[in-house]
Amino acid sequence: MNNKGTTLLIVILSILVIVAGGMLIYKIINEKEESENVVADDNVDINEDKDDKELVVEEKKPQIFNGNDRPIAVMIDNHSGAWPQANLNKAYLVYEIIVEGGETRLMAVFKGQDLEKIGPIRSSRHYFLDYALENDAIYVHHGWSPQAQNDISALNVNNINGIQESSNNFWRVKDKKSPHNMFTSTTSILKIAERKGYATISDKKSVLNYIAGDVDLKEKYGIAEEQTENTSAESKAINATKIVIPHSTLQTVEYDYDENSKTYVRYARGKVQTDYITGENIQTKNIIITMCDNYTLADSEEKGRQGLKNIGTFDGYYITNGYKIYSEIGSFIPDLLISGTIDILILREDKFIIGDWKTNRGGLKFESGYYKKDKRQNPHQTTDVWVSTNNKLLPPVAHLADCNGAIYNLQLSMYAFMVEYILGLPCAGLWLCHIDSDFVLNEYGMPKRFPDGLYHLKKNPKEIVTVHKMKYLRTEIINILEDRRKNIAASRIASKTLF
Q1: CA distances (Å), 102 to each of 13, 125, 251, in order?
Q2: 269-325 confidence digits (pLDDT tens)
Q3: For the segment 211-255, what is each residue's pLDDT rounded down to a tens digit?
Q4: Structure pTM?
Q5: Are 134 and 345 spatial neighbours (Cβ–Cβ below 8 Å)?
Q6: Residues 301 and 147 sit within 8 Å (Cβ to Cβ)
Q7: Residue 327 to residues 99, 322, 343, 347: CA-CA distances in angstroms?
Q8: What is the dihedral of CA 289, 290, 291, 294, to 10 degrees?
Q9: CA angle at 79 for the pair 78 and 85, rounded to the nearest 5°
Q10: Can you say whether the dihedral through the CA atoms of 334, 335, 339, 342 is positive or negative?
Q11: Residues 100, 70: contact at Cβ < 8 Å?
């Protein structure tokens, strides 16, 4: 962890996800049986309005998860004898989860692909079914554990077991040793699915929200390339240009960031991972890590098979473009009794960015005032007439307008100051994403209030998203904290005089 520009994530049991151009999921374990989860995502496009200094998100059609072809989830052998595997880069999502013996196994999920060779294929493990089902995928494997066999039957999973199929559809190649040499094709899978009566189209939405563009966090949020002289050794460890994940003493995975392609190249046990057919490196755009636990099953076979505790709320990371992104992370200044939860914290080795989400009706205002009401109607309706006022916030920030924009700006600035206080890193930018609901509008073009007193959504609503660049009000926060410090000191003196 003391190598400059590197990050070591001690992932002791986890699920990791990789997608072609965007994602991989895998599960990691060591002998202590602690864990994490990892997932990855891709693609965003935001244009800046130079007049009002707002970033407006434009919707584009993503290519990773497109069309109505039903996904196909294939269990992929990840034993070293199975390397290299075929067509992992064609999957839109890949799950990697620990199995017995310290090995990991992959589940590659494909959609709308025509692939002549997928594999090597191995047997099912029951906890992979959770992810096959949430993708509404046809589940393909070659053999199964007793737990997987029972769950496939109980859950009525649309599965294809290669052991039960002919060698025309599941075949072994000669340049790999058995059992690490079983392959199939999408044509064979779809032919068997049709014979079994499985649906081959699906309108289920992706489990991840793909968007059709790339995000350059440095450009969008003004992160400088140079490092500051006072950057601490601890802060160097938050850079995400190298991710090392020790699944077990046997299996360690590493992701090295390639600045040119803006993707992570995958290594396992010190070897770069390549494609069986093309020889290209296995790459992913984004990595999301969610911590969870695994455990050894106490079954009669005593083969060390694993179980996974994947239900609940877990800590996590989102890693992309050389940054590590945390969600819902706590921050605090204990001596001032101040704490909060940051929606998005984006970290580099030398800078950080903070983001927040708001969904209040009516959007953000950066001046004090209100919209006039039409009181002739029952219930009263909001008009499009804005009345400006000169209301200000209370001291020590009485120079700021009394409006939600200023209040949210102070909130983000407080978070930024707390991160500076805790990590010793400078703030490179603040942004606030406002997500407005698509309400039925009244005659003034404003959200209509109905007789039940509520605002109703349109039949086919679309979220209206605006991203605001926010100013870091550091001086104001220092004044607020100094005022807070004085008040706490005064209250302590007052309490002492009572006794």
Answers
A1: 10, 14, 7
A2: 999 999 999 999 999 887 776 677 888 998 888 899 998 888 877 766 677 777 777
A3: 555 555 445 444 444 444 443 333 333 467 888 877 788 888 888
A4: 0.62
A5: no
A6: no
A7: 28, 16, 5, 11
A8: -100
A9: 50
A10: negative
A11: no
